Amino acid sequence: MDKQTVLILFGGKSSEHDVSTVSASSVIKNIPQDKYDIIKMGITKEGAWYRYNGDVELLPEDKWVEDTANLVPAFLSPDPTVGGIIEITDSGVKTTKIDAVFPVLHGKNGEDGTVQGLLQLAEIPYVGCDMTSSAACMDKAITNALADQAGIAQAKWLSYTEHEYRSNPQKALDECVEKLGYPIFVKPAKAGSSVGISKASNVHELADAFETAFANDSKVVLEETVTGAEVECAVLGNADPIAATPGEIAPCNEFYDYEAKYIAGTSGLFIPARISEDMLKKVQQQAIKAYKALGCSGLSRVDFFVNGEEILLNEINTIPGFTSISMYPKLFAHSGIEYSDLIDRLIKLAIEKKESEQ
Ligand SMILES: Nc1ncnc2c1ncn2[C@@H]1O[C@H](COP(=O)(O)OP(=O)(O)O)[C@@H](O)[C@H]1O
Ligand SMILES: [Mg+2]
Description:
Blueprint: E1 4-11, H1 17-30, E2 36-43, E3 49-52, E4 71-76, E5 84-89, E6 92-97, E7 100-104, H2 114-122, H3 131-138, H4 140-149, E8 157-161, H5 162-167, H6 169-180, E9 184-188, E10 198-200, H7 203-214, E11 219-224, E12 229-237, E13 242-243, E14 247-250, H8 258-263, E15 268-270, H9 277-293, E16 298-307, E17 310-317, H10 327-334, H11 339-357
Parallel strand pairs: 1-2, 1-7
Antiparallel strand pairs: 2-3, 3-4, 4-5, 5-6, 8-11, 9-10, 9-11, 12-13, 12-14, 12-16, 14-15, 16-17
The structure holds adenosine-5'-diphosphate and magnesium ion.
């Protein structure tokens, strides 16, 4: 069989840019090379697109951006008759067909349906959730509303646009305290990696937390603080998805903030999660229910809080951290699907999904 050409998209104009370059370098190093030819396409923090022909080791910490001899201005064409990328080379414009795209992009401008919309226009198969589901999972207010509608338990929550809040801050503050009670988690509706999230224990902190969240998005989500283990479930598949055995995060800080996720390196990770066999199964069922309710396909990591018999949905990450030591790949490795095989399956799922849509 001929090798297929897979485009790995990395970086992005997102607060999670640096996480993406690490995830992408892992994917590139582990993709089965007997089956796939790789094209690397980077998006800078400013949003500029380049084909990158240099060393994959230069992806983390954005060293690839300085490797200018190996950068070619290029972009994914929305035109299905092109079916791939257009490069602007010294000798003119060059087009290359692409069989599938793996957007290894986290957060805004990549995990949020924008790139997925472009790929839908281009009619190129791509790994992961479609435009609608990516956008719904990126926005915590929409995720929560759809989860409520599907009867999936979660923390009590409220949401305000910046316009609503500014028109009567006192009313919003009173409403939050009355409905949620302190401490309150305040999050930008669309962010990730805990950027812009704070926990408020009094009205001053709450007002500050609104400002911090608005600095990241024009809509915020507020939630009552729930207790319990942070349990994460990896789901894989299209119409008939499977869930790996859930894992657990034990944050080293008061909550799982950016520092705890990427800097301190002392958060605990347990596979399986430290809950009963019965609860592990229930989390898997709930994860698949949430995955379907949000219209996910390909992959997602569905995160919960588990307290005794109670399982509360926290959020769905449609492009979860994907280094070989990230939770999602580790969970499937524990359930018998190794990292390289996982990448292979994700690409096959992308192609199958495209074929089933025709
Ligand atoms: N309602 C809540 N109650 C208690 N802790 C929470 C709540 N919401 C979030 N957290 C804590 O904040 C972290 C980040 O919140 P999350 O909604 O997962 O945002 P992100 O998309 O940035 O990962 C969680 O992993 C958890 O530690
Ligand atoms: Mg999270």
